[in-house]
Specification:
It is globular and about 40 Å long. It starts with a helix and ends with a helix. The chain has one domain: Uracil-DNA glycosylase-like domain (Uracil-DNA Glycosylase, subunit E). It contains nine helices and six strands, in the order αββααβαβααββααα. By secondary structure, the protein is α/β, with parallel strands linked by helices. Bound molecules: uracil (URA). The site of uracil has 11 residues, from loops.
Length: 204
């Protein structure tokens, strides 16, 4: 892990920027290869993640592992993080001010891990990173040119797919094929001058 990512992790692990610090068991910062080509962004830690300190370790994580294995990848090959790093009480949706407090960590994580492909899982990650109010059902099924020449591939949240497996899992399998193809696509980085201005605008 790079020194900068280690430092960022240390800061995040003791974060008290929002109310979730009072109810979490621990901060769930991220897991996987810090130099991964592919990064997943989920929503928020649930009960199991809050207990274990690792994203996607419960039932949704099992499905994520299965979908990854179907494209020849494992958890160790990718990096996995969430929009917010602390569990909301009772697994309620993240609140807008909690996302605002936490999004700087995600932005820094993406910058330091520097994946070529970012896959967003569900509405919260997709809406934040694509800066849209359009829902996941309409956005999924294609990849989007994204920050600094990366490709962003939105798909359903695995927990949603577990609630409607017959309809959503096949669509997620299609999206994972898109992820696989995106990983084969050479990244075209924008010129440095554009890069700086894009960085300033990301998530604002
Ligand atoms: N759901 C998420 O969005 N993230 C996790 O880490 C676990 C479940």
């Amino acid at each position: 892990m790079s020194e900068a990512l280690r430092e960022l992790t240390e800061v995040a692990l003791v974060c008290t920027r929002c109310r979730l610090a009072e109810t979490r068991t621990q901060v769930v910062f991220g897991v996987g290869d810090p130099a991964a080509d592919l990064m997943f962004v989920g929503e928020a830690p649930g009960f199991n993640e809050d207990q274990q300190g690792e994203p996607f370790v419960g039932a949704a994580g099992q499905l994520l592992n299965r979908l990854l294995s179907e494209i020849g990848l494992s958890r160790e090959d990718v990096y996995i993080a969430n929009v917010i790093k602390c569990r909301p009480p009772g697994n309620r949706d993240p609140l807008p001010d909690e996302i605002d407090c936490c999004k700087g960590y995600l932005r820094a994580q993406i910058g330091l891990i520097d994946p070529n492909v970012v896959a967003t899982l569900g509405n919260f990650a997709t809406k934040l990173l694509l800066r849209t109010e359009t829902g996941i059902t309409r956005l999924r099924g294609r990849s989007y040119p994204w920050w600094q020449g990366r490709l962003l591939v939105p798909t359903y949240h695995p927990a949603a797919a577990l609630r409607s497996p017959n309809s959503l899992i096949p669509e997620m399998q299609n999206d994972f094929q898109l992820i696989s193809r995106a990983l084969e696509t050479p990244r075209v980085r924008p010129p440095a001058v554009e890069k700086a201005s894009e960085q300033m605008n990301l998530f604002t």
